[in-house]
Amino acid sequence: MAGVIDTSEFRKGLKIEMDNEPFEIVDFQHVKPGKGSAFVRTTIKSLITGRVLQPTLKSGEKVGKPDIEDKEMQFLYQQGEEFYFMDNRSYEQTFVLAPVLGDARNFLKENINVSILFYNGAAIGISLPNSVDLKVLQCDPSVRGDTVTGASKPAKLETGYTVNVPLFINEGDVLKIDTRDGKYLTRVSTGS
């Protein structure tokens, strides 16, 4: 624990430590009843597991300040279940295991910049840009005159991720993919 935070300092997005686990404050409310002492009703989300808790703390109570660091890093390559990144400032390299990355690994391609969250020196999460441009490696060819509105077909991208795309998409096209929900946004360029 790097220090303490008083309940009077609570704000949305603040990172705190409770029971040796880092949490982010999602919501809080200071309550001052007519009788009794004031308290703070909070909603917190674990930065490791994602579970949501709703503890009630006495006004003036102190919680831990976690040893958290957010680093801008560049994805270099993947070797098995290890994904290697380089710190953009110090040029130090580190790896993150696939389970920590979760679905984010579907959108990692070489040289993409991401933000990695470290807790006590260990990576616990990753933030990607809202969209990435990925090349289509494999999909069924488009058929001239096939213009059914809203129809789609699966396309395998360069990262191995499969996404549903409109019928006019061909192999070699570069697509913009939303990293938040994994859906096709638009075609950036056509394959040559």
Describe the structure.
The chain has 192 residues and is mainly β. The chain is 2% helix and 54% strand. It contains 1 helix and 17 strands. It has one helix spanning 98-101, and strands at 3-6, 15-18, 21-31, 39-46, 52-53, 56-58, 62-65, 68-79, 82-87, 93-97, 113-119, 122-127, 131-139, 152-157, 162-166, 174-178, 184-189. The strands form 4 sheets. Strands 2, 3, 4, 5 and 6 form a 5-stranded antiparallel beta sheet that branches. The chain is elongated and about 75 Å long. The model has no long low-confidence stretch (mean pLDDT 87).
Provide a brief overview of the structure:
The protein has one helix spanning 98-101, and strands spanning 3-6, 15-18, 21-31, 39-46, 52-53, 56-58, 62-65, 68-79, 82-87, 93-97, 113-119, 122-127, 131-139, 152-157, 162-166, 174-178, 184-189. It is mostly beta strands. Strand 9 (82-87) and strand 10 (93-97) form a beta hairpin.
Helix content: under 10%
Pick out the low-confidence regions: none
The number of helical segments is: 1
What is the average of the pLDDT values? 87
**Range of strand content:** over 45%
N-C termini distance = 55 Å
String of helices and strands? EEEEEEEEEEHEEEEEEE
Largest sheet: 5 strands, antiparallel
Query: How many beta strands in the DSSP annotation?
Result: 17
Class derived from helix and strand content:
mainly beta
